[in-house]
Amino acid sequence: MLSPNSHSRANVKLTIPQKIRLFLLYSFPVVLFCSYYPLISIASTESTNYELSLPLIWLFLFSVLSLKDFASAIHNIYKNHRPYLLSFLFPLYLSTTIIWSANPLRATLTAGILWCIIITSLTILTKYKAQSFFDKAKFIKIFLISSLCFCTLCWVQSILDCLGIDRNITLLCPGCTSYSFGFPHPSGLAIEPQFMGNLLLAPTLTALCLWARPAAKAHFFSRRALLFFSFFFSSTLFLTFSRGAIYSFTLGFIVLTLLSLIRLHNRAFLKTIPLLLLSFIFTLLMQGVFSAISYTNSTFASGIERSVSQLSLGEINLHFSNTDSDPATIDPSNSIAPVFDGYVEESTDVRVNLNRIAIDLATKSPSTLLFGYGLGSAGKVMFQAEKTSTPFEIIQNEYLSLLLETGILGLLLAVLITTLILLALRHIARPERYLIGCTVLCYLLTLLFFSGFPNAIHLYLSPVFLAASLLQRRPHRSSL
Prior knowledge:
By secondary structure, the protein is mainly α. The protein has helices at 16-33, 54-65, 67-80, 89-96, 104-128, 136-162, 167-170, 178-181, 193-199, 201-212, 223-239, 243-262, 272-293, 300-311, 345-362, 366-371, 378-384, 398-424, 430-446, 458-470, and strands at residues 39-44, 49-53. It has a two-stranded antiparallel sheet with strand order 1-2. Strand 1 (39-44) and strand 2 (49-53) form a beta hairpin. Helix 1 packs parallel to helix 6 (136-162), helix 6 crosses helix 20 and helix 19 packs antiparallel against helix 20. The chain is globular and about 65 Å long.
């Protein structure tokens, strides 16, 4: 399904800026997983914390070094692919909303990051996808090994938390420790488990595709190694306990499986199904083990019960054991009871309520419905309307956040740019096209569960790097 660029790498003499960019390209998988730690706090206002992370620094450097190539890419699109210029309406409009934004400083910085993402994406896809000096196989190896390292970190975080190590040392977020559910759900070096789960979507799908296609194995890792990657990545994804990431991955995986069966007539991908089931069962058992050894009074069975209940939104209650308050099930040395016992309905209710607030405010008048309140203004607008207790609140749904800040016009332009991106995939060979398409689908689904554009840079750049390193053009005859 996937294979690296077979084009021989000639001895190309690179300039210093090109060498720096090439280094940045290869370092991207590592930098991306450091999405929150280390962090440089710059300033704080009544509605925004201004912080600098490694991905943001990476993005700024790469985009600045790519301005010349970006201009060349725009010229090429104008000459040969003019309809795709419509995709620039989205960032241009979002930048325009700074004029009426309730939070102009945040809006300006957000628009700047958006343009950096566009400059970086377009440069990578036009400059590096076909370059002989960009070793695609090397990038994929770095991508998978980096994922392996940070997945290992997640398991180490979980074990250390169960041993009672302070979260300031493990770097777990406040609600990630065993104190919440009886077992930890790690966040890696991300701000919370949901972000870590999202970071694992692309490498997990990639590893599964590589393992299911024996013809591609020799170019990357052995079959056993890819099997281990697939199992370990998916197990860690489940361990993050992020419902948004898990639901999105499940649907994306189902679509990828159906496409492999129907369009590629490939049954090999079916063997990934029992693998994922085994990884889920393994993680479930480990959550039970973590519950039994943690500093709470949870038991092995109650840990599994809580996990299944939360993931199923309270629809499945196993009742394997008595309640944790039963003296017969409590370890006297552990007297701390977890905060939650089963499905946390409040977490869903809070999201639904925030979504409702966003819709109410967006539809307050024809002008706000059409143009919104301006980029970066969601938290401040909700607070000023006395709908939330803090201006730092986010809507937890990027689409409704976009509606509130940029109106229907912003949403329509977002649909337009997404459609153009998906249409561009038609020039790519089918197997790779389906992997990239399903990865994009997963990320589009995760946007239903959180907001705060553009904090999660991986949502926008991961598919770009997959495209640059995995995609191969269709034969000329079938590219029409």
